Backbone:
């Protein structure tokens, strides 16, 4: 076998032509999403008022192992895919570890993250259906930017409700989205009923993701030819992100490499679900014994301290109920927490796999995460997003463990994006003013108290 290069390239022809649907490989399927009023499984008809028809079809599909990527989406993917898969020789050397470390870099597009993989697919399907406007929320801004890029490419109007506090902290994010033709409204706004109600009650609020989701959903259901798109958590988003793992598998197979450990940061679970898809499929079929690790912030510990229960997807309790590991839709992470990964729940496929022991999880405090981020930036060059740096931390710790035991493990992690819009967080880390916050059991109990009663 030839020496593994620094970048394990794939050609355009080797790029995946179908996504992989992990659910079709699972014996124990995730519980269905249900109507919060009747507790009956949601029908395609019910969901189609909010989401695009093809997204709904994919959301409910648990039988097809592979779903074709239409040519119109593959043409978009060509602009930034295949994405680089890197053997982190510099990091291995710095750590003096016998482990092999690989990372898949999804930040090489203007949105700065993997979110573009699903944005492209969702906007393509919207266009095919004759939808003229799509609405969404954005917090940190990567999803809103990705959707704006896809909207510009396919010719669909994009309306983004951006959490007001985030819009004030990251004004340049808004400029990028507007450059791609999107309209950006700081949320809560006076353009929706729910926004006006919130403003009346709390005129000075800087908003929240839950509130922005409620505004975007209200606009979608009350405007003709308009649908709402979501950037994580749901199963069709996980499906689109499987392109990440499929590219990794094709590239690694060329060199006879099977990862022993696959690591991803977990907010709503889409990048990890996508990265691990083909490797988990192998494990579920008994073909491999790869270990999978989800990494989350200690300040928002959905897996490591959450409950496995039916819960709402948003703070405004407007969405269907999803069976997932959750801190309760009423949980609000500490404002001192830097990057994303602030979502209260976790995708239902990952939740079921975690519950059944196929997936492990660990959490880190943010100063520890930023130490790894800076170490990585200095030796591998890329300035990582704070979210991605959770995966870096876990990969580094795994490699250091190998140094003690002498194991030659092959570690694959997802480098989901770049941190150019997170410089305030880097600044506070560099100045030594960044602090950690771990919620107490009593803090978490408040979130659990908001869980709906479903038996
Ligand atoms: C959105 C985002 C995440 C977390 O979302 P998942 O759905 O859990 O993947 C991680 N990293 C970056 C850079 C992001 O933009």
Residues:
């Amino acid at each position: 076998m030839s020496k593994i290069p620094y970048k394990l390239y794939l050609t355009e022809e080797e790029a995946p032509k179908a996504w992989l649907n992990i659910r079709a490989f699972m014996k124990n399927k995730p519980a269905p999403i249900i109507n919060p009023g009747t507790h009956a499984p949601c029908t395609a008809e019910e969901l189609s008022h909010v989401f695009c028809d093809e997204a709904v079809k994919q959301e409910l599909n648990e039988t097809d192992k592979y779903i074709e990527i239409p040519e119109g989406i593959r043409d978009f993917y060509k602009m930034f895919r295949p994405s680089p898969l890197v053997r982190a020789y510099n990091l291995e050397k710095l750590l003096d570890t016998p482990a092999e470390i690989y990372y898949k870099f999804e930040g090489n597009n203007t949105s700065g993250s993997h979110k573009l993989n699903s944005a492209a697919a969702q906007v393509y399907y919207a266009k095919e259906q004759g939808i003229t406007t799509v609405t969404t929320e954005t917090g940190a801004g990567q999803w809103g930017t990705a959707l704006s890029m896809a909207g510009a490419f396919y010719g669909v109007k994009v309306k983004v409700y951006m959490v007001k506090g985030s819009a004030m902290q990251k004004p340049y994010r808004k400029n990028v989205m507007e450059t791609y033709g999107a309209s950006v409204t700081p949320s809560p706004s006076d353009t929706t009923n729910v926004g006006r109600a919130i403003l009346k009650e709390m005129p000075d609020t800087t908003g929240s993701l839950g509130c922005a989701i409620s505004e975007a959903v209200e606009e979608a259901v009350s405007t003709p030819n308009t649908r709402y798109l979501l950037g994580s958590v749901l199963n069709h988003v996980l499906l689109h992100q499987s392109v990440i793992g499929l590219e990794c598998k094709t590239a690694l197979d060329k060199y006879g490499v099977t990862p022993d450990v696959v690591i991803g940061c977990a907010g709503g679970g889409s990048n990890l679900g996508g990265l691990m898809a083909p490797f988990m499929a192998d494990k579920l079929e008994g073909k491999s014994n790869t270990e999978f690790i989800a990494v989350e912030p200690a300040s928002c510990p959905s897996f490591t301290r959450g409950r496995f229960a039916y819960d709402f997807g948003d703070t405004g309790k407007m969405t269907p109920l999803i069976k997932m590991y959750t801190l309760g839709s009423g949980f609000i992470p500490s404002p001192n927490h830097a990057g994303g990964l602030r979502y209260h729940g976790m995708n239902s496929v990952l939740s079921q796999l975690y519950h059944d022991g196929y997936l492990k999880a660990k959490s880190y405090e943010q100063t520890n995460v930023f130490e790894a981020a800076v170490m990585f930036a200095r030796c591998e060059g890329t300035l990582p997003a704070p979210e991605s740096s959770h995966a870096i931390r876990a990969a580094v710790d795994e490699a250091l463990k190998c140094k003690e035991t002498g194991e030659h493990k092959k570690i694959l992690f997802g480098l989901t994006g770049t941190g150019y819009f997170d410089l305030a967080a880097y600044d506070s880390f560099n100045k030594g003013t960044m602090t950690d916050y771990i919620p107490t059991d009593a803090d978490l109990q408040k979130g659990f108290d908001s869980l709906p009663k479903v038996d």
About this structure: DSSP finds 18 helices and 14 strands in the chain.
